[in-house]
Amino acid sequence: MSTQTFVGQIVHSKSLNELEVIPNGFVAVSGGKIVAVGSDYSTWKQAAGREVEETLLSPSQFVMPGFVDCHIHAPQMPNLGLGLDSPLLEWLEKYTFPMESRYRDTAFAQRIYQKVVETTIRCGTTLAAYFATNHKESSIILAKEAIRQGQRAFIGKVSSDCNCPSYYVESSDEAVSEARDFVKRILELKSEIVKPIVTPRFALSCTESLMGSLAKIAKENNVNIQSHISENLSEVQVAEEMFGKLYAQVYKDAGLLSNKTVMAHAVHLKDQELKIFKETGTSVAHCPASNTNLLSGMCDVKRIINAGVTVGLGTDVSGGHNPSIKDALVRCLDISNHLHFVRTQSIKGCEEQQNITNFNNESKPLTYQQAIYLATLGGAEALAVDEKVGNFIVGKSFDALVVETDSFPIFNCGLQSEGKEPERDLLRLVQQFIYSGDDRNIMKVFVNGRQIK
Ligand code: GUN
Ligand code: FE
């Protein structure tokens, strides 16, 4: 089996608070898996004594783990940037359900889903948790597109049996049998990179009986679960009235919460609900763009992390208007800063000053290094408890990006290579890409060692 090596600047998260930078480093990949990573390439190469195919990176390039999108609605991509003038429940009725209902047409699904996967790969997404629609055949088309294009993905056929328009709702029996058959059909594809994920849309559009059946299907097949929770205050109120208990308790009682579950948004979770998430191992997909666009609220990610809950990022297209997780990363930092302003500016006069100078770790905004963790390893941990991705550890799959920082829209003109403080220089490149770069700076994308861009 041939071995491929990437030699040059390497960056990856080892944990929330540890971004490792290796200025003169290498990653060696064989059979799609990382077989070595470090800083002494020539010694490794001699000791390894095998033929290697080398990719030598220039001083303006670096390798980092691929982005993980923990929450994206593939069928909503044609609505990108549209209809962001209404809060959630109105937005669903006016824009989202009409678009999603079109995917009963499998030819339409094929045309759109091919472009969706091309687009997210181009943005550097190596792992995505996709919501599709209620339609089984179209959802299978999305899975086959991800397999064909080589993107790692969880594909969810959406389940909804109430409180949806009559043109876009399933009967309860149909919802259960179609969900079961969907999981079976995706597992039969025997893909190493594409898996089914059980997807009740949200508690408002699912009966308790449907949610219970979906939990059973997930458990019987050992597959993941995704849904939405506490995105919007009206939604929370309806959920609590419908079921007479806390929103998170509804999902817990249905058997939907476990360490294979990711819930999107979680903007308005109460302390008691965070405890339920921690106890069950449930993760959160933080979707800052969508939370802003649909006037849902500012999600306090640090509060969720401090409660011991794993967090990743989601674009939430098309509540979110950008398919790039790198964009979500910057918006996540924005929201974290804004929350900090709210905390510190609400205190008047000299107390305000005191609060700013004394602010403790808990109220400090997230750092860009922590946000990189959320966009890569955090997402991988939130989603893929069984997959070994998210950073460069021996034995994990090589899901990675080659980033060029000396091309439009970033011009660092070789200034990074003055070379006295190589680690700091590399961090400059990383910051420039994170804040000011875009998909044009992502030269190559790899999943499981296979180049897909
Ligand atoms: N809640 C239920 N469905 C949806 C959806 O499609 N998008 C968002 N953002 N929230 C939802
Ligand atoms: Fe969503």
TrEMBL record:
Its EC number is 3.5.4.3. It catalyses: guanine + H2O + H(+) = xanthine + NH4(+). SUPFAM superfamilies: Composite domain of metallo-dependent hydrolases (SSF51338), Metallo-dependent hydrolases (SSF51556). It is an enzyme of class 3 (hydrolase). The keyword Transit peptide does not apply. It holds the Pfam family Amidohydro_1. GO terms for cellular component: cytosol. Catalyzes the hydrolytic deamination of guanine, producing xanthine and ammonia. This is Guanine deaminase. The lineage of its organism: Eukaryota, Metazoa, Ecdysozoa, Arthropoda, Hexapoda.
